[in-house]
Design brief:
Blueprint lengths: L1 H20 L10 H23 L5 H11 L10 E8 L2 E8 L7 E7 L12 H14 L2 E6 L10 H13 L2 H6 L2 E11 L1 H15 L9 E5 L11 H5 L8 H12 L3 H8 L17 H4 L2 H4 L12 H6 L15 H4 L4 E9 L3 H13 L4 E10 L13 H17 L1
Parallel strand pairs: 3-4, 3-5, 5-6, 6-7, 7-8
Antiparallel strand pairs: 1-2, 2-4
Helix pairs in contact: 2-3, 4-16, 5-7, 9-10
């Protein structure tokens, strides 16, 4: 009997491991087994977080935040870069200052990490690697911002934190203190950080107190609109690596409130009230996506929801949270732009539509579309989970900065 029980347990354990690890992977992915293992890890943490949440042990996002904590590394200087944790305008930042001599003033990048406005921090191994590499390769000052996170803080706190850091840094006295050329400053970010970077670049154009203009913005697979969570990319990539649709809906709704009614309305794509119908022109994918991304999807008019949600949580209709919702006129004066999108990503169409609208408004845009990549691929550039595709995307981004900043 004992042997039979052991065999049964072994069989069940193997089945569970196989279920976790084996996921159909798109054919064009390099290193499919590595991707499967990474996905299995993320899925396991996601499931454990759900269990913790349902048992009332901790909020779903706080459980996920344990990944962030496990990945943390202290600020460590090396032969190329001096790294310190400090504060700009009462917001925590990690500062990277190159040690190499500079012929003149340096370039600077202000970076906002991703994590759905709920997770992540500048001190995570992957972000520390990315920002250190940027500083070292470009001989640039890099400011990586630790804005406050949901569920403890909701919109507009995250935006206000990054904006106040940007505004503080752009003062001429601060730029000269760090030897930064005021004509060569870039704002950058990935995912939710790309959302914040796009919003900051737009807000700076309206701010008469800021005299220094940004030279560039770099948006890495950014989230840019809250209106239509059923774009072709949301449908096709509903269960793709790292960022399934259900998690993106959780991130979006949690950015504004912990009230589950917004999440439920967003999940069924019925959260926008009829009085905001004029905004849909800015995210109408039937006009804004190229043929190869429309495929055989058919555009259907939105199903409107109650006005009550939008009155309670107006943030989701605010362009500071959804940068695609501004008129073409407000896009005209934006700086030189880099947009990275990944084929297998729910956020793909957000970036594609923004690149298209910016171009139409006369902004100079480089749009890199990675056909063999998934959301967050650039985070996997070091250690055992290093992916060749992550390395390639990181190099492309650094090259663009080097040529354009």
């Amino acid at each position: 009997v004992d042997m039979g029980v052991k065999l049964l347990c072994l069989f069940l354990a193997s089945a569970l491991v196989a279920y976790y690890i084996y996921t159909p992977i798109p054919e064009d992915f390099e290193e499919p087994w590595k991707v499967m293992l990474i996905m299995a890890g993320f899925r396991a943490v996601g499931h454990l977080s759900e269990v913790a949440d349902q048992l009332g042990l901790m909020h779903y996002m706080e459980a996920l935040m344990l990944i962030t904590a496990a990945e943390y590394i202290a600020p460590t200087s090396d032969e190329n870069v001096t790294v310190t944790d400090t504060e700009f305008s009462n917001v925590a930042v990690r500062l990277f200052l190159p040690r190499k001599q500079s012929d003149g003033l340096r370039r600077a990048v202000v970076y906002f990490h991703g994590g759905g406005w709920c997770l992540g921090q500048a001190g995570m191994k992957s972000y520390d690697h990315l920002t250190r590499w940027t500083s070292n390769r470009l001989n640039a000052v890099v400011v990586s911002v630790n804005y406050r996170l949901a569920p403890k803080y909701h919109f507009p706190i995250q935006f206000e934190d990054v904006y106040s850091v940007m505004k503080f840094f752009l003062q001429s006295s601060i730029l000269s203190q760090y030897g930064v050329d005021p004509d060569r400053v870039c704002v950058a970010g990935d995912s939710a950080g790309g959302n914040l970077a796009a919003a900051v670049a737009q807000q700076l154009l309206k701010d008469s107190e800021v005299k220094t203009k940004l030279k560039a913005q770099a948006l890495l697979y950014p989230a840019l609109q809250t209106l239509d969570l059923n774009l072709p990319s949301y449908q096709e990539n509903e269960n793709k690596p790292i960022l399934p649709r259900s998690l993106m809906v959780k991130f979006w709704s949690e950015y504004f409130t912990s009230d589950p009614s917004l999440r439920e309305a967003m999940a069924s794509n019925t959260h926008v009230p009829v009085e905001s119908s004029h905004l849909f022109q800015f995210v109408n994918w039937s006009n804004l996506l190229p043929k190869e991304l429309k495929k055989d999807h058919v555009y259907t008019s939105p199903t409107y929801g109650s006005s009550e949600l939008a009155q309670k949580y107006p943030g989701f209709l605010d362009p500071r949270a959804a940068p695609l919702l501004v008129s073409d006129d407000q896009l005209r004066r934006l700086p030189l732009t880099y947009v990275l999108t990944c084929e297998h990503d729910v956020l793909r169409d957000d970036g594609v539509m923004y690149a298209r609208r910016l171009r139409a408004a006369g902004v100079s845009v480089t749009h890199d579309h990675a056909k063999d990549a998934f959301h967050g691929a650039m985070m996997f550039v070091s250690g055992p989970t290093k992916l060749a595709v992550g390395h390639r995307l990181l190099n492309r981004y650094i090259e663009w900065l080097n040529e354009n900043l």
